[in-house]
Amino acid sequence: MRLMTGKMKLALLILSAILLASILAPVIAPHDPLAGDLKRALEGPSAEHLLGTDNIGRDLLSRTLYGGRQSVVLALAATALSMALGFALGLFAGYFGGSVDIVITTVSNIFQGLPGLTLMIAVAGLWGQGVKSMLAAIVINSWTGFSRIVRGEVMKLKQENFVDGLRTAGAGHGRILFLHIAPNMLGTLCVVFATRVAGNIISVASMSFLGLGLKPPVPDWGVMINDARQYFRQRPLLILAPGLCVVLLSLSINMAADGLRDWLDTRRDSLDGNA
User: Fold this and answer.
1) Is 45 in a helix, a strand, or coil?
2) Cys-Cys with 123: which of 90, 137, 219, 252 at CB 3.0–4.6 Å?
3) What would the DSSP string read from start to end of 1-30?
4) Residues near 13 by beta carbon (within 8 Å), at least 6 away in sequence
5) What pTM does this model have?
6) DSSP letter string, 202-255
């Protein structure tokens, strides 16, 4: 069995390169990402500034390298919070059913029926600009996906014979849920988590681009794209550099998640065949 396809290797290579560049930005960035020089504003690529400079003379390469740090951390934090909320609600809805399931599913359907970007803008607009409001907006928009998937998995797992055996042996709901049902969903949750991180990378950039996330002069990809709107015809790299990073990072995570899903399906089929 091939453990890793060519597509997944390429995805992991791109993902590793972007993450390493972001982590090592303080070491490899040639200039201070916040230091500007108006006399050198909007310069093209040169030996000193490999990607040129922005509208106030800051080094574009340095800002691009630092920009990944903000985007990745915020996307991971937003996804983790979304998964925690969605996991808890989906777990209880799927296991207990009845009125608990009806209430949680109804609320989930309401949130899922709202346009995602519009909902995030409304939440961030009410709470004001900043990291906290951006995280809250993304979490409120994202938890329903986790909840529905977890609910469906729990509804299938609670019909298994081992759950009936645990109930017969006197196991409580907490033990059955968290020690036996939850661990059986780890593979699925890992794939969903990775996929959601990819989506939230774009959400973080979108919110910052709209002025509802991180504030200038923070070197963030969304902020950089917003700053470049007036100058991209003169210096296309101002948008291409951060924009390409957002696309490549999101795409590589999605490709890696697809590869992980294929591997888990192959492994499950192999185990079923040996059973």
Assistant:
1) coil
2) 137
3) --SS-HHHHHHHHHHHHHHHHHHTHHHH-S
4) none
5) 0.85
6) HHHHHHHHTTSSSPTTS--HHHHHHHTTTTTTT-THHHHHHHHHHHHHHHHHHH
